[in-house]
Write a structure and sequence with these properties.
Elements: H1 9-30, H2 36-50, H3 56-76, H4 83-87, H5 101-116
Helix pairs in contact: 1-2, 1-3, 1-5
Length: about 120
């Protein structure tokens, strides 16, 4: 079975959420956002783990918007993103844990962003 080269709306929102969450983890650990190389690596990790097949335009669009969303969210509620909250977004296998309120909040922001950009 082959993977389609285009992610559906929910898959794009999940990948975007994963990238935003990865930015927050990097910020907590290093004080810096993910580098471009790390964003590319994180995108590949998510696609491989989820059997996704995004074309280059989807990957670039989502990766470029992830940091922007993370920065906006940090300004809105910086106290929410403490180290314990940020690390609780992921399970042991580096998948997002949507039982985490912060993961759900990021997902909602990503859905809203995609809807407002009419990229669905």
């Amino acid at each position: 079975m082959t993977n389609p080269l285009n992610l559906d709306f929910r898959a794009r929102a999940e990948l975007l959420t994963y990238l935003v969450a990865s930015h927050f983890v990097a910020r907590q650990l290093t004080g810096e956002w993910l580098s471009s190389d790390h964003v590319v690596e994180s995108t590949k990790i998510w696609l491989d783990a989820n059997g996704g097949g995004a074309d280059i335009l989807q990957r670039v669009m989502l990766a470029s918007r992830a940091r922007e969303i993370a920065e906006q969210m940090e300004l809105i509620s910086p106290l929410t993103f403490d180290p314990g909250q940020v690390t609780s977004m992921f399970c042991e296998n580096l998948r997002l844990d949507f039982r985490s309120p912060i993961a759900r909040d990021i997902y909602q922001h990503c859905l809203t962003h995609l809807l407002h950009t009419r990229w669905y």
